[in-house]
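FW: tagging you since you asked about this chain on Friday. Here's the raw sequence from the shared folder, copied in full. Didn't touch anything.
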Amino acid sequence: MYTPPMAISTLAIILIIFGVLVAIALVLGWLGIRARNRRQAGAWAEHVSEADAALEQARATDRGWHREVMEAAARGALERERPDWPYSGLHLVLVDDKPGVAEDRAHFVAVGEGGDEARVVLGRQDGDWVAESVD
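HL: got it, structure written out here
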């Protein structure tokens, strides 16, 4: 039995080539996005951290909290709990502002020379900031 050869029209060939090119472009684009995200992962996390810290500081400032007083209390707690530990930065990372004054909390993270960290949790006692814990 004789079967004639299958004929493909020019339009079909063009559509197949176009489809293959679109598929290749999509795969290359997806790979490029993944590579960019891997390269920028550290910078992205840093920007998010800076934005969070700025937001927390703004919230603290808007509520009438004085950052200088809070930092002095955190530094005093670090000097008492870890007198010989040098740290290069003290960062406000969380403001827990509950109704009233008695349950207000502020979390600072001190970063040491070797990258080790200490978290200082401050609370209010009789209107003053006092250290509740140093971890």
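FW: The domain at 65-134 is CATH 3.10.450 (Nuclear Transport Factor 2; Chain: A,).
HL: agreed, and The chain has a mean pLDDT of 85.
FW: great, closing this out.
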